[in-house]
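Below is how a single chain appears once it has passed through the pipeline. First comes the sequence as given, then the structure the pipeline wrote out for it. We keep one example in the README because the format questions we get most often are answered faster by looking than by reading.
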Amino acid sequence: MEICIDFDGTCVTHEFPKVGKDIGAVPVLKRLIEHGHKLILFTMRSDIKEVFSEDYNIHKTAGNYLTEAVNWFKENGIELYGINKNPTQQGWTLSPKAYGQLYIDDAALGCPLRQDYKDDIVPYFEDSIPDGRPYVDWALVEYHLTVMGLFSEP
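Resulting structure:
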């Protein structure tokens, strides 16, 4: 199966433009590859040669943001099948959307999320984690992938 994987908030916490903290994606992604699945990095990150906006929230400086995400996969021993595209789809579509049979993304409806809370207080606090945003709960994702049979022998 070809699986599209988001990066910020999905593989790591939201800390763009930095690479966020580990949230448990590595062992699950490696397990997917071990079972014959192909991973496609599907992210909004891009390498910026020059700042093209005065909006402080878009890009503060030029940087190799996409390259840093790709390097995270390399450093963690996770092979990518594609980066923002499925290498096989050019032969049958001109669509820019990366094709996959499954998408794992913190912004996807139904993707299990978690939120760390400051001082074990349950209500949502904007300052409880960097950016105040929830991120993918990989223990629950792994459970769902198991139920779906994705860890059966290829």
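The two ends are 10 Å apart (CA to CA).

See the next section for the split statistics.
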